Structures are given as C-alpha cells and as structure tokens.
Amino acid sequence: MDLFFHYLSQPYLITGIVYTVLITCYGLVGGVVMGIVLAVMQLSRFRVLASFARGYAIIFRGTPLILQMIFCYNALPMIGIRLSAIEAASLALALNEAPFIAEIIRANVIAVDRGQILAGQALGMRPLSIMLRIVVPQAIRTMVPGLGNEAVSALKNSSLASVVSVQELTLRSTQLASATFDFFSIFFASGLMYLLLTGAIAVIQLVVESALDLERQKTGNYFARLLPWHRSGRADGVTADPVSPVAAAEAPLPPATAKASRPVDKEKRWAALASSRPAVEIRELRKSYSGRVVLDGLTLDMRIGEVVALLGPSGSGKSTLLRCINHLETWDSGEIEVLGRRIGTSPNGRTLSPRAIANERASIGVGLVFQNFNLFGHLTAKENIAGPMRWVQGLSVREADRRASELLARVGLSHRAEALPRHMSGGQQQRVAIARALAPNPAILLLDEPTSALDPELVSEVLEVIRRLAVEDGLTMVISTHQIGFARDVADRAVFLADGAIVEQGAAEEMLVRPKNARTAQFLQIMENEAG
C-alpha cells in the first residue's frame, strides 16, 4: 500500500497526467470545432457539402485511431507538414472525434420539434435567429450527456498517443513498471488517476446539465445572460417560484368588454364588408405532394375585417392553404397577394431568399396559430410572446415584457406568465399561442384548427378568446375549423373545401343552416351528428 501511494504521488506519473489532459483538451476542442462544421455541412441544403461530410465520417470512423496518429506523425512530414508528437496526437484525436461529435450535434438539432421552427418562421424570424434562439438552446441541453460520454472516450483514447512516443500517463506507467517490475502497484495507481480524471468529467457534465436545467435557471446567472437564447425572466428581475397546483388551475377569462358582449348585426356587417378592399387574393392556386393534388386551381378573396371559416374533411387542403398564404409552403402555380404584396416573390417575379421572406412576413403582418400550439419549449409563457417581439420587431426588454403581460392578461393567463409550456394545459398553451400571434399587431390572423388538439372541456375557452378577438379587434381572420356552431356565430363567410377545391361558399349564417350543395349538406350533417 505504501508503494501504491508512493507511485500515486510520483512526479514522473504526474507529468504523464499533464500530457494526457493536454492531448484530451486539444483533441476535444478541435473535435468540437470540426464537429460543428461537419454537422452544419450535413444539415446544409447543398448536397456536395453534405456528401463531403458523410465521406469524411466514413473514413475517420472506419479506421483505427492508432493508424491516424501514425499518419499524422509520420506521413504529414512527407508533404511538408511537420508536427511535434503532442501536436500530431492532438490533431489525430480531433480528426477522429469530429465525426462522432458531428453526429451528436446533428441528431439533437433534427430532434427539435419542426413545429417550433415553423412557428419561428411564421413570426418573421430569420433562419439564423431561429437556429440560435430556438433550435440550439433546446438541442444543446439534450446533447450534453452524449458529449460527456465522448469526452470520457477521448480521455481513454489519448493513451494511444504512446505510439508516437508522447509521454502520456499510460506510456509513463509502462516505462516505470518495466524499470521496477512492480506492475500491480504502478498500474493500479495509473488506473486510479484515470478514474479521477473521468470522474472530473462526470462532475463537469452534471454541473453543465444543472446550469442548463430550465427548472433551476435563475435570472442572476450572469453567464447565462451572455447567451443569445437567454430567458429574460420577469421585468422586475425576480424569478418566479414554481406555480402550485392550485395556482395552476384553469382561470376564467377576464370579463368581456361591452363591445364583445353586444350582439353582432350580421346583415349590417355583411354590407360593410362588401365595400372593403381585399386583404388576401388567391388566383388559380395549385399544390401537390408527391403527385397527390392538395390544392386544385383554388381561387378565393378575403376582405379586410372579414372573418372567414374554412370547412372541409381532413385532407381537403385547409391547412396547406393557410400555410401558402403565409408562404410557409411553396406552390406549383398560381398567385397569392396579401395586402397587395406577394410574400416570397420580388416585384420582378424572382423568388426571395429565406431571410428576405422572413422580413416580408414581419413587415406585412400575417399571424398564424397552429393546431399543435408550437410554443417554444425552453421559454416561459411570457417569453414566448416577448422574445419574438425583441428579436423581430426590435422592442426593448421592458417594452416587450409590458406588451406580453397585457396580452397574457387579455387571455386570462397572467398567473401562468412564468410557466413553461410543458407545465400548462393544452387550452392554456393555445391561448398563449394566440397571444403570441397577436403580439406584433398583425393585419391578418390565420388559425389552423385551433381546437383540434384540445380535450373537449378546454375547447370553449379557446373559442371564446377567438370570438372576442373577432368582435373587439375587427381583425381579418381565416379560421380552419370543424366547430360548425362556432363558425356560424363568429364567421362572416363560410367556405367549404373538398379535394383541394371550393365546393360552396357564402354568408356563414345562411350556408351553414341551408347549404345548397349536397356534399356540403352531407358534411354538415356528419359534423352535427359527431357533436351530438
């Protein structure tokens, strides 16, 4: 035992630890940098870059690290690149780690719910902003365990640097054991040193995971405040305590305003809308997926201030139509103008870049509420609303928070301002999504089956929020829905779609009570039977 402690403290082995740590750190840093580049290349739209990255991964994952170290140390000098033993070992370790780290990064990036990316696009966020503020902060939390395992693997693989005569821990242990013939004590001490190093990596991993834990983040974390996805927290700088089950219970909506409580004169409103200018003009719109026609020469106008209900069976093209209006989907032929402008196309007819399209969405003002909420999972309810206003509209933190608080109060969710989406009910999440879409004061609000993902008891609260918006704000709204009673009460016009074409349209009160088309009548009958 005395010999064991003697070897454990020997400077000869301690020097080996220093070389081991140096090679590991250099290899990991280089591997992470190269891994990020390879991951970006594989995620790129350019096939040449993606093919190069995959080819690199096949080569360096398919050959032993020991051969790569020999190549860097002995073969590179033949082409004029001379490296020291430590440099060659570090380079080889970095080249070897890069494809593994790239796969960890790529896997966690593509695992982020695509609905959140679509939500960012609908809000007018640019591609880089979506990546830095939506995708990366969620991906990085899930990739930490994988990167921790890779760091441990790199530490153990550093022992192969002995093949190019680097005096790292394993080589020094072997040399010392050969000189003293005390193999057991020396290698036991060496193994304990490796265990301490890997234990340090495990502790660092736990600290990082704790720092990135959404449940434990504090606004006073100054390192976190430097990150581009930092959650600003409350405007007063105080982090809210976790909401109790009692406080988290469904809260009623605030009382309706006098305007929202007053019955709507549909005939007078219909006459007023007839003189309004078009908000959305769609001409001969055609769209297909893999040869299956989704929109078949659809032509439709929607006027400013009008509430249009899109009805139709699943697969009739309602969701695709809404996404085409906001240019989240491209189409095969036809034209769409929103407030006299074509989103995604320049005046000379050329397709705009994703960045330019994002700018157009933000400037024209077309909000979109998704059926699956698509809230940003790493942000609180308030930050889901305030964040895009800071990133897209350029509002200050204080002004964005004030606007977010007003909207949350309007949808009856002030008590859930600091709650993460996973701690809210489906109805609450959809109300936050509606508030987020309203935040930039859009000229047109699109709602894609806003109640289809909700439990029946939560549907009424969301429908009431939408009804009040239609009456109080006079927004131009296009609602895809199966709620026939709601469409009859709120919508000015109903449009029935089937097989990507308009079968019938007209004043909602008239068409939904006395349809003229047999297919429309059959659909309405089925919906009423299901509701009953």
Short description:
With 532 residues, the protein is an alpha/beta fold. It has 20 helices and 9 strands.
* Named CATH topology of one domain: MetI-like fold
Spatial extent as radius of gyration:
30 Å
Strand order of the largest sheet: 5-6-7-3-8-9
Q: What is the H/E order?
A: HHHHHHHHHHHEEEHEHEHHHEHEHEEHH
Q: How would the global form be characterised? A: elongated
Structural notes for this entry:
The structure is a single chain. The protein is built from 20 helices and nine strands. Mean pLDDT is 85; it is low at 218-223 and 233-248. With 532 residues, it is of the alpha/beta class. Among the domains are: 2-213, Orthogonal Bundle (MetI-like fold); 244-275 and 303-330 and 357-365 and 442-532, Rossmann fold (3-Layer(aba) Sandwich). It has helices at residues 2-8, 11-43, 47-62, 65-75, 85-111, 114-122, 127-157, 169-180, 183-211, 258-261, 266-274, 318-325, 354-364, 381-391, 397-410, 426-438, 456-472, 484-490, 508-511, 518-531; strands at 278-289, 292-303, 307-311, 333-338, 366-369, 444-448, 476-480, 493-498, 501-507.
Q: What characteristics describe this protein?
A:
532 residues, alpha/beta, MetI-like fold, six-stranded mixed beta sheet, 54% helix, elongated
Topology, element by element:
Blueprint: H1 2-8, H2 11-43, H3 47-62, H4 65-75, H5 85-111, H6 114-122, H7 127-157, H8 169-180, H9 183-211, H10 258-261, H11 266-274, E1 278-289, E2 292-303, E3 307-311, H12 318-325, E4 333-338, H13 354-364, E5 366-369, H14 381-391, H15 397-410, H16 426-438, E6 444-448, H17 456-472, E7 476-480, H18 484-490, E8 493-498, E9 501-507, H19 508-511, H20 518-531
Parallel strand pairs: 3-7, 3-8, 5-6, 6-7
Antiparallel strand pairs: 1-2, 1-4, 8-9
